[in-house]
Specification:
six-stranded antiparallel β-sheet, 359 residues, 27 strands, globular, five-stranded antiparallel β-sheet, mainly beta
Length: 359
């Protein structure tokens, strides 16, 4: 797995700006460097919050162990919807040991789904989630029913990694696809809900090209996909493409640390994160139709605010928060403009990853 939407403080330095939408040919950049499938926060208080380790094959080398597996402490509440999270160990053996969701009644662990290689859980329906995992060999897509914790494998590729799925309006899945045997990106693909058919959406990159397309998110009307087109493992930009294919439209210039685009419920604005030159990560927005980006959060001193998502009514956001020296991430909630930020969840030698807020 290439990324878990985490940041390397030593390398991610971002110029925070955006341009008006400009049509760009679809065959621009894209290519992954498959990395360790789960990257937790380090145990050392002085270490940076996360790192991305490249590897040549899809299989995860990390194994389950006896490390701390606390699912953390819920400190606040939400008004509506459910926030889905993967919970990773930040000390001892690394990996996702729990999938849970937060709603107005509290924190609920979904039993027997996480397998330590599980990543990127996302709501598919009210009762099912989609995630990627290496439990069956190479990284593939899986579906879980939260009512009975049953898991069904969706894709079964060989020496091909598939991850970071998002759900289209017709139930199909758009996701990253890349080679597990060599540095080569296969672009974004759209797979039927049962995995029986596949359509390539963005181009394959030449072997050795460090560029790649990643992190697709689907507009509320189900017709448009925003994604990150990376020049290499550090520098990228936001683009959109019609779910039926065609030319891509650039939303932001190439800059460092661009990740985790998410549509507002009304489809007019896209939330994302990037890392300015001071080393602190922040959440930004950009109009879906193109225009200037606007900074939402304002971190300092190496603090990180990233992986944000909207509440169902668009009035709030949930985001990950980290300060240098911590051995965990926290989840914060704030008003959509970044004000009134409060703690929602705090890890205990653990970290909540890729929050996804559904209705």
């Amino acid at each position: 797995m290439r990324h878990v939407a985490q940041l390397v403080l030593a390398t991610l330095v971002v110029s925070a700006c955006a341009t008006s939408a400009v049509a760009t040919p679809a065959g621009n950049t894209a290519s992954p460097v498959p990395s360790a499938s789960v990257t937790p926060l380090p145990a050392s208080p002085s270490a940076s919050p996360a790192s991305s380790a490249s590897k040549s094959l899809c299989e995860d080398t990390q194994t389950q162990g006896s490390g701390n597996r606390s699912i953390g402490t819920l400190s606040g509440s939400i008004r509506s919807g459910r926030i889905l999270i993967g919970i990773e160990a930040a000390a001892g053996p690394s990996g996702t040991f729990a999938i849970a969701y937060i709603d107005s009644s509290g924190l609920h662990e979904i039993p027997s789904i996480a397998d330590w290689t599980t990543a990127h859980p996302t709501w598919e329906t009210q009762n099912t989630i989609v995630f990627d995992s290496e439990r069956a060999g190479d990284r593939n897509l899986f579906r879980a029913d939260i009512s009975d914790s049953s898991v069904t494998q969706i894709t079964s590729t060989f020496r091909v990694g598939e991850e970071k799925a998002a759900v289209l309006g017709d139930g199909r899945l758009v996701h990253d696809e890349y080679s597990c045997a060599e540095m080569s990106d296969f672009g974004l693909h759209i797979t039927s809900a049962d995995g029986s058919s596949d359509m390539q959406l963005t181009p394959t990159q030449a072997v050795g090209n460090p560029a790649f397309d990643t992190s697709p998110a689907v507009s509320p009307d189900g017709h448009t996909i925003v994604f990150v087109r990376n020049v290499d493992d550090n520098v990228g930009a936001l683009f959109t493409i019609d779910a039926a294919g065609g030319d891509v439209v650039r939303l932001t210039p190439d800059s460092r640390g661009v990740e985790y685009p998410r549509w507002s419920p009304d489809g007019n604005t896209i939330l994302f994160d990037q890392t300015p030159s001071g080393g602190s990560s922040d959440v930004w927005t950009v109009p879906a139709a193109g225009g200037d980006a606007k900074q939402v959060t304002h971190s300092a001193g190496g603090a990180l605010r990233w992986e944000a998502d909207w509440s169902p009514d668009g009035t709030q956001i949930v985001l990950k928060y980290y300060e240098p020296g911590w051995r965990y991430n926290a989840l914060h909630i704030a008003d959509a403009d970044g004000s009134n930020e409060t703690v929602l969840w705090t890890g205990d030698y653990s970290t909540a990853e890729t929050p996804h807020w559904d209705p």
